[in-house]
Amino acid sequence: MNDAEFADVVAAVRRFVRTEVVPREDEIEESDAIPPEIRQAAADMGLFGYCLPAEYGGLDASVTEDVQLAFEFGYTTPAFRSMFGTNNGIAGQVLVSSGTAEQKAHWLPKLARGAVSSFALTEAEAGSDPSGLTTRAVRDGDGYVISGVKRFITNAPLADLFVVFARTGEEPRGTKGISVFLVDASLDGVQVGPKDRKTGQAGAWTAEVVFDRVRVASTALVGGAEGAGFADAMKSLVRGRVHIAAVCVGMAERLLAESVAHAQSSKQGGRPIGEFQLVQAMLADIQTGAYAGRAMVMDAARAYDSGADRRIRPSAAKLFCSEMVGRAADLAVQIHGGLGYMRGVPVERMYRDARLFRTYEGTSEIQKLIIGRALIRDGAQST
Ligand SMILES: Cc1cc2nc3c(=O)[nH]c(=O)nc-3n(C[C@H](O)[C@H](O)[C@H](O)COP(=O)(O)OP(=O)(O)OC[C@H]3O[C@@H](n4cnc5c(N)ncnc54)[C@H](O)[C@@H]3O)c2cc1C
Fold this sequence. Notes:
By secondary structure, this protein is an alpha+beta fold. It has helices spanning 3-21, 25-31, 36-44, 63-73, 78-88, 90-98, 101-113, 229-265, 277-306, 312-335, 346-354, 364-378; strands at 117-120, 136-140, 143-154, 161-167, 178-184, 190-195, 206-217, 267-268, 271-272. Flavin-adenine dinucleotide binds next to β1, β3 and α12.
């Protein structure tokens, strides 16, 4: 895609989000589902595979391009992005970066057309520290038998493909001996639990997934090599952090738009509340955070694409932007007064939706550890 073509894609996504998805946010919230026609339109626009290689039907978006789309996705319910987020991000990128030619040829065109992939790493005692995972893949004839329980797996109830991290080595824990498998969701022994009841992000589904002696062929081992799973997971998560940071910026910009509109129209003492300087100060804080976040994300994305930094900037952007949008949502609720606490008001919903960004794809604490460790190991560097 050249720059002009990409600008057209961003403009089309922006138009679609604002005219087709935003007006249906309440319906998505109430039904806890994305309407099928929105899902179909997203597939028709190529959104299920926009970060996948063009040769497999994707749009080949770089991280710098991905974040510009993510700013737009962030403007509406996160459930819209979540529907295809795992394909372009954490699950799909494992396949893109480490899959064999046969694995890519088999799965990527399906994903680009609208099939759904899930990233199955987290377990009860392996969240922030996935090296504690206990799911096992035991060699059996010309294949493996996978057993274990994953939880909080995004898109699991819809998944056609699970990208599953399992222990193939002898070590009971640690980063060594973890491998990653492509598990067709229709295989015997794959059991997806009921969808989780979450605080927010209605319409985006997670569930527990049990792999009960699931037999896969040896061709399901990503890259054909055992032991590469931990590095594959980390690589994919790093890229995902820049994307999540951009989604947070988009949400902060929406919170700002809602808050400005409210401050301009809602009156106290016969005057719009936006005339009160303390209200203006809250708006200024949201604006400043969103602006800082946007600039940071663009810088982090360029440094990711050039290879200049795939460690500190992605974590710093995810840390800053997820905390920033939490604060922005809190301020937006405050600006809306009592109305901000009422269901059906967008900022109330976003207040709940925003909370997740500080937790998944690496908590804020884990981002601090990554940044801190890199600084101690490599010394301070100007970013
Ligand atoms: C809605 C949702 C969707 C998700 N989607 C997916 C998915 O698609 N695939 C997937 O594999 N996982 C997914 N997850 C899991 C998510 O990535 C984990 O919940 C997250 O990484 C935190 O792990 P945990 O829940 O086990 O919490 P814990 O790791 O137990 O963390 C609890 C607290 O302890 C802190 N903590 C942990 N270790 C340290 C440490 N070393 N130093 C300091 N503090 C620490 C954490 O920061 C946190 O505050 C999802 C989770 C949610 C809620």
